[in-house]
Amino acid sequence: MASTVPLFSSAKPRAFLSHVKPSHPPSISLRPRRCEISTIRASIASRPVVGAPDDLVASILSKVKGTDGGVLLTKDGHQEVADVALQLEKYCVDEPVKCPLIFGEWDVAYCSRPTSPGGGYRSAFGRLVFKTNEMVQAVEAPDIVRNKVSFSIFGFVDGEVSLKGKLNVLDDKWIQVIFEPPELKIGSLGFQYGGESEVKLQITYIDEKIRLGKGSKGSLFVFLRQGY
């Protein structure tokens, strides 16, 4: 495990996400303020959203359900997820980084690379010690991102690793997030470690229910909005 642990990253693990020198990112957060969420939901409800056919959305969710974020999938299973994601990309809005649907709390339902969300905690050895309970990414207006992986150590002691970052928009589809050093909590103890980290992510599809992302190293993410 590196000195820092990438959460939802596709590059080298460093404080929860991949490392790169910042260009221009937007932000994502884990616990958006209630007033912001209400405003976001009202905005979503007030504008029509054209999404993909329901069967495509249902298909990709059925393929990642019960796979421990993709860890339990075979090579063929990963390819099936990638094939459906490619079809969903055809229905992505023109400028997904400007879509208000990005805001909210999202569960990380799948990643094509097990260690991208959670770094060493999600490696083959790490999963023997740390049982993942939840992987969440929250995006708060206007530009805050919060990532969190909660786990239990051998099923007895609860802990979590969290990151707070600032999001910058690179173009119509790509965002960059610069994260502060990660914070580790085990039981009542908590501390920060490592340094800043950076991740770049392309939004390839988004609707009220799911969001798809592709990291700069090719990792595919499927996010499911909490509450669905």
Automatic annotation (TrEMBL):
Keywords: Plastid, Transit peptide
Cellular localisation: Plastid
The keyword Plastid belongs to this UniProt entry's keyword annotation: yes
Principal subcellular localisation of the protein: plastid
One annotated Gene Ontology cellular component of this protein: plastid
InterPro entries given in the database record: PAP, PAP/fibrillin_dom
Residues of the Plastid lipid-associated protein/fibrillin conserved domain: 58-184, 196-223
Pfam families: PAP_fibrillin
Protein name stated in the entry: Probable plastid-lipid-associated protein 8, chloroplastic
